[in-house]
Amino acid sequence: MPTHQAVYIADNEAAMVALGEQLGRVFAQYPSALTVHLLGDLGAGKTTLTRGILRAFGHAGAVKSPTYTLVEAYEFAARTVYHFDLYRLGDPEELEYMGIRDYFSANTLCLIEWPARGEGVLPVPDLVVAISVAGDGRSLNLRTDSAALAALLPPT
Q: Is the dihedral angle over the CA atoms 78, 79, 80, 84 positive or is it negative?
């Protein structure tokens, strides 16, 4: 299956949130559950991007990385969004104890920071977003094996 890639540049935090909103609108119209892996160093902007995604669904409040709670749930009419931060996960098997498989059900969007910490337990992602520092901004490389999802992504 061919991999589809797109690269976006966010010059500042506002641009990162705006890109997140664009992605959130794509995710809201996607007809089935989605798993998105968010890759990047500490401070790269994974949670900032998530804030934009959640805004597209109508969330106006603060968005913090769930570093200590592992997951934060956001309930919307269109779907439930789960924001995971696995940075402090000691062992992937801990995910089994928290009932991880229950989160990946119909009509959910799972945004996962530090997915490598859950390797072997997490499902294969529908989309991988790799964020890296690019000057004062960020470069976002999106990869998916889904032609249907790739067709919905905003133009680069």
A: negative
